[in-house]
């Protein structure tokens, strides 16, 4: 059994090609656009589509070209996914839950995508908008904390204290001023 290697791709400005028509093709194209990719959508395959492509998704109801698409992408070193055709995929789509910068992706390596969806739904109930706000706050602190605590281990310990502080609970309860005070208390306590 070969397991996948999880990564999050940064696709801003990358040329991505979606081959096919219908709901799945539209959905994959939209997701790539949301990631900042330059998306080309074509109803049918032609090798010229692969010029300059970083990633290709074959998402049409007609899978007769999948072998050709996969081989052409492999020859060019292009990441490729032929939907619902695991032998012709170099990556798979996980089920994803987002809250701002928080990204939780669940994969069953193709064994049972329905389980991945159910787990994503569970995560959506547990990880709400307070996580997005918490990460906005943390992003705003990164440079300051790097200056105040130049030592990696000390800074790492502080980040764990901030994460373990009452801040997330307070944000969930719409008590942001108190959440900010809890974070500041952790920062000052370490000085």
List key phrases describing it.
191 residues, single chain, four-stranded parallel sheet, elongated, alpha/beta, two-stranded antiparallel ribbon
Find the count of extended strands (DSSP E, 2+ residues). 6
| Overall residue-averaged pLDDT value | 94
How many strands, which pairing sense, and closed or not: the largest β-sheet? 4 strands, parallel
Shape: elongated
Structural class: alpha/beta
Instruction: Tell me what portion of residues adopts beta-strand conformation.
Output: 5-15%
What string, H for helix and E for strand, traces the elements in order?
A: EHEEHEEEHHHHH
> What is the radius of gyration?
21 Å
Helix content: 40-55%
Strand order of the biggest β-sheet: 2-1-3-4
Helices, by number, come to 7
Low-confidence stretches: none
Measured between the Cα atoms of the first and last residue, the distance is 49 Å
Task: Describe this protein's structure.
The chain starts with 14 loop residues before the first strand and ends with a helix. The chain has helices at residues 23-34, 66-76, 113-126, 129-148, 152-164, 167-172, 176-189; strands at 15-19, 38-42, 55-58, 79-82, 95-99, 102-106. It has 191 residues and is an alpha/beta fold. The strands form 2 sheets. The chain has a 4-stranded parallel sheet with strand order 2-1-3-4, with helices on both faces. The chain has a two-stranded antiparallel sheet with strand order 5-6.
């Amino acid at each position: 059994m070969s397991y996948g290697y999880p990564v999050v791709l940064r696709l801003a400005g990358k040329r991505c090609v979606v081959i096919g028509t219908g709901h799945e093709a539209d959905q994959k194209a939209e997701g790539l656009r949301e990631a900042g990719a330059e998306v080309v959508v074509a109803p049918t395959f032609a090798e010229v589509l692969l010029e300059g492509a970083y990633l290709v998704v074959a998402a049409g109801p007609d899978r007769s070209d999948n072998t050709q698409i996969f081989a052409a992408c492999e020859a060019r070193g292009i990441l490729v996914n032929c939907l619902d055709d695991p032998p012709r995929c170099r990556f798979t789509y996980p089920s994803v839950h987002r809250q701002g910068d928080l990204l939780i992706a669940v994969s069953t390596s193709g064994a049972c995508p329905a389980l991945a969806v159910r787990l994503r739904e569970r995560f959506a109930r547990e990880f709400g908008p307070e996580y997005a706000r918490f990460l906005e706050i943390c992003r705003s602190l990164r440079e300051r904390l790097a200056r105040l605590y130049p030592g990696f281990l000390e800074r790492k310990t502080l980040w764990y204290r901030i994460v373990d502080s009452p801040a997330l609970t307070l944000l969930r309860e719409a008590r942001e001023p108190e959440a900010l005070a809890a974070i500041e208390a952790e920062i000052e306590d370490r000085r």
